Amino acid sequence: SSKAASEGCPGALEKMAKTAAAASSRRRAKPKEGCTRRKSVQAPHKDRIVGVHFSDRTVAEALADIIRRKPDAVHSLMCRWRKPILRARIPGRGGRVPSKGMLAAAKRAVLRFFAEEEAVGPQSHVVKAFHIASGESVLRFDWREARKRIRAARLDRRHSIDTWQECLAMNSGSTNSKCRIYVCGTRRITLRALTSIMCHEGLHNLARRTRRGNPFLSEDTEHVAMALIGDPQLAS
Asked: 20 to 30 A Cα–Cα from 216, which one of 136, 141, 155, 201?
């Protein structure tokens, strides 16, 4: 996932994680427009990177306070809007170091998902989730740019983009508009998990404000939207 790139919903990701953790057992200063880096939300465990996976009910309770809706109402939305492409254990069992073929297969699945969501326009669950998460009545969805970033995604085998000690994929660039998607090319992962994190990264910077000011939503706001459509990775 990411470091925050714009205004809106500061600290929501941390708040979700704390609330979710508490429920299962019973950002910060505004930066400039720049993207710096967006890292998929995973956590290190020994020498592996393992996604922190919460149940839908737990996530709904965490989201309810952020979007100011009742937990049952949030859970109902999540059940209706759940996208299987985002629901994968990270990095999954029996994975392997990603090949160009694996990356190409993941790209095809994500591009197909994006095309399906774009085709239904305002009825898209992705679109609805971003509206709820952002509180914006008008958003522009740049599906063309999202597809372009997915097609251009690259494996980083030489650790030239990151050391890959804390994540498996990221958006990296000098600004949000110049971000590119990179995937760790040395850690084992299943195709399903790779597809999931590619989709996650592709959804960053998809929704844009149309009013004056910074058009990009914050990382936290984007993660709220993704959680509403079934992405269970909430904490790093």
From this structure: 155
